[in-house]
Amino acid sequence: MRVIIFGATGKTGQHAVRSALDGGHETTAFGRSVDRLDAASGLTLSRGDVFDAEVVASAVAGHDAAIVCLGSTSLKDRTTLRRGTEHIVGAADGQGVDRLVVVSAAGVGESWAQIPMSSKLMFKTMLRNVFADHQAQEAVVRASAANWTVVRPAVLSDKLERRAVTASNTSKTSRIHRAALAGFLVDQLDDSTHSRQAITVTS
Asked: Where would I find the beta strands (DSSP E) of 39-79?
């Protein structure tokens, strides 16, 4: 499968690129600083900004699927996730890209009941703008004609030893390793279990 990964230079995005390549997918890494990624067989680098709809549309052309791992630029940022995802969804729908996998956050929508009180406090205070942007982002994805899946990860970690993934919209969340999340994202490319659904993941 030919897959393009947006936010490919972020912490989760880099893991997703490696996981996609390991899975035998022809992979395009899209981002403003993709030149810093190591060259690899099967990897194409596409330098661009998700705020440029024409550049995004050009990059999406010819792909079968897209994985979206966008991140906010700051705690004051309320628009990057929504705006970037709007351009990606528009390009995917316009060019008939069937599979769309998008990273959101545990706590959005009905998953609010799954997260610990510490996360709820963070989302109501210092992360309130990021939280609002994720909510708007998910609304954009749900309007897509593509076969989409929204993945809502628990608190992300680079140090967590456990790599097993629990995918559930009822289980309480704790943390999840970025590599485990990335593997789950790539697995969704060939798995329709959560088609046109949001699913919460934790370890």
From this structure: 43-47, 65-68
Contact call for residues 188 and 167 (beta carbons, < 8 A): no
The pLDDT value recorded for residue 163 is: 80
Q: In total, how many domains does the chain have?
A: 1
CATH number at residue 55: 3.40.50.720
Domain that holds residue 38: 2-202
Identify the CA nearest to 184 among candidates 107, 71, 69.
Answer: 69
**What average pLDDT does range 172-193 have in this prediction?**
96
Beta strand pairing call for 155-157 and 175-177: parallel
Q: What is the pLDDT of residues 63-105, one digit of tens each?
A: 999 999 999 989 999 999 999 999 999 999 999 999 999 999 9
